[in-house]
Each structure stands twice: as C-alpha cells, then as structure tokens.
Amino acid sequence: MKNEKKNPENHDPRAVFEDHMKIRDMPEEERPYEKCEKYGPAVLSDAELLAVVIRTGSRQFRSTELAYKILKLHTAYTGVNCLFHMGMNELTGINGIGRIKAIQLICCAELARRMNQEENAQKLVFDDPSAAIAYFSDRMRHLEHEEVHAAYLDMKMRLISSECIYKGTLNKSVFEPREIFSNALRCNAAYLILAHNHPSGNATPSDADISATKRIDECGKIMGIKLYDHVIIGYDGCVSMKEEGLI
User: Fold this and answer.
1) pTM for this predicted structure
2) Among 128, 218, 130, CA closest to 180
C-alpha cells in the first residue's frame, strides 16, 4: 500500500497554534525562564518579565508577544509603569489576556507598589520634607483619582501608621479634621503629615489646599499634635507646603 501524503489542509490547526504558544518552543537562549535561571532576573527585558507572569500565550501570540502588547497598550504611560494605570477591562481587551491573567498582572503591580512602600518606610525618618515626598510619591503619583493620606509619627518622627483618609473624584477631595485627629489620638501620634495627589499632574497648591492646610494646622495646635507638613503629589513633581512656607 502506498504511503499516504499528509494533507496540510487536513492537519489539525490547533497543533500549529500550540507550537506557537509555548515558550519551550523558542530557542533556548531566548526563553525567559532559562535566561533568568542562568543569568538572574536583571537581564530580562520588561516584556520577558511580564511573559514569565503570563506563562502561556494564546492561539495567535506567544506570551512574550502578549507582553509587548501590554507594554504598548496605554497611550500616556509606557513600559512597566503602564500596569499601575490599567484595569481589568483594558487588559482583558487584549486577545489572549483573560480574567485570570489580568488579575495576576494587576496583583503584580500592587505587590510592586507595596514592596516600594515597605522598603521606603523602613528606611525613612520623617524629619525632612524630602522623606515625606519620597514615601507618598511611591503610593500616590500613579493614582487617577484624588486621595488624602495621613502619616502618624512618634516623638522621634518615625512612622507609626499611615492610611487613606479620603478617596475623591478627579478634582475634589475632603479634609475632615475629626477623622484625621481621631486616628492620630488612637495611635498616640506626636506629629502628623498630610498628603494628597493632583491627578492633573500639576502639584501646585490651590487656594483650597492652602485653606484646608491652615485649618488642620490650627486644629493640631489645639490637640497638641503638630502638623509637620502637607505634601502634594503630581506625576511630574511634588510640593512640600512646609518648604513653601505655607505651614
């Protein structure tokens, strides 16, 4: 019996897709897992690091190709910082990124944010405006809505705790002395630092910012809890109201 030639048209197309989606089918020197194991994670590109998180590709794209699509998706933020500005809908809009992969990517971004916060908090003593700016900038400059945060410090200006006091709209926030100082009393704070972000990116204090700061400062004097600074966080820069002579 003659050998039958395989007809490519009758070949299962899924086999081709499966070959395309697997990292193990890439040349060994291009596989992110092998590169990381041999040389360490620092040699991996942003796309390769994301590909390790994504793990598998789709029928059309390898995981590295999906990673490149993610890095180029946001129009305003490029590179890995784009993950701070993407939600489920944007990520799952990419062919090959489903619900689970999107959640994994969002959680990776949040984990990176928290790691930066913890590292900075352990190193910083908040006796200089630059320390407060560094601490709050990591957690707030990527936000796309306005938030008010408070850091409560002991007598040596070390961090006791910090928390978000208010989450607002794109252009409005609320400074409530009652909530701010009840939390300060609860943790026996000696000093208070306020921070809020301007989603517009411009960190220049507004008249409302200055008025609210003076109100909190006066309340602090009555309560015996000094308002040490109020920092405003913008994506392109930050302002210390203490340095500006507004406190």
Assistant:
1) 0.53
2) 218
